[in-house]
Write a structure and sequence with these properties.
Elements: H1 3-10, H2 14-18, E1 26-29, H3 37-45, E2 53-59, E3 75-81, H4 84-91, E4 96-97, E5 116-118, H5 122-144
Parallel strand pairs: 1-2, 1-5, 2-3, 3-4
Length: about 150
């Protein structure tokens, strides 16, 4: 099959991409230049159809639509490194902070699977897969250690 045909068959609108998320899913975003900005904005715009969706993100630098007050029942942000837009929601206990060492960063594992990972480019997604898996392990270890204490950002 020609790559152009394959690409055309697998291309979808942001609304179609967001619709594959289910209640209770963990969604992992690429970070920095890999943030899927249009996807995040579409997800926030369609928030009413989601409940208890965890959004794991390494460093969030976007505009923070899904971090706004009132989104708590729909999305729970889990920051592995605290970026500017995530500081206030974390301080107000509307988002979580899971401290990790970059060298041990994994997002998905057999015990904490991720249904969806989103990045702007497929190449970046493939190269970031190992980092995504390591963040999942860090989140799980942090939760198991019962260290989920309120975070004070000063």
């Amino acid at each position: 099959m020609d790559w152009r045909t394959y690409y055309k068959e697998h291309t979808m609108t942001p609304e179609q991409a967001v619709s594959v998320i289910h209640d209770g899913d963990r969604v992992v975003f690429g970070h920095a230049v890999g943030e899927p900005i249009i996807f995040q904005r579409t997800m926030a715009r369609m928030a009413e159809q989601f409940h208890n969706v965890e959004v794991a993100h390494m460093v969030y630098l976007g505009s923070g639509e899904y971090l706004q007050p009132g989104m708590e029942g729909h999305f729970r942000h889990n920051a592995l490194f605290v970026g500017g837009p995530a500081r206030k929601p974390i301080a107000e206990h509307r988002a979580d902070y899971t401290p990790v060492f970059f060298s041990t960063y994994r997002v998905c594992s057999a015990t904490t699977p991720c249904r969806w990972t989103f990045s702007r480019s497929p190449a970046r997604l493939r190269t970031s897969a190992a980092m995504f898996r390591s963040a999942c392990r860090a989140i799980t270890a942090h939760r198991r250690s019962n260290l989920r204490k309120p975070l004070s950002l000063r």
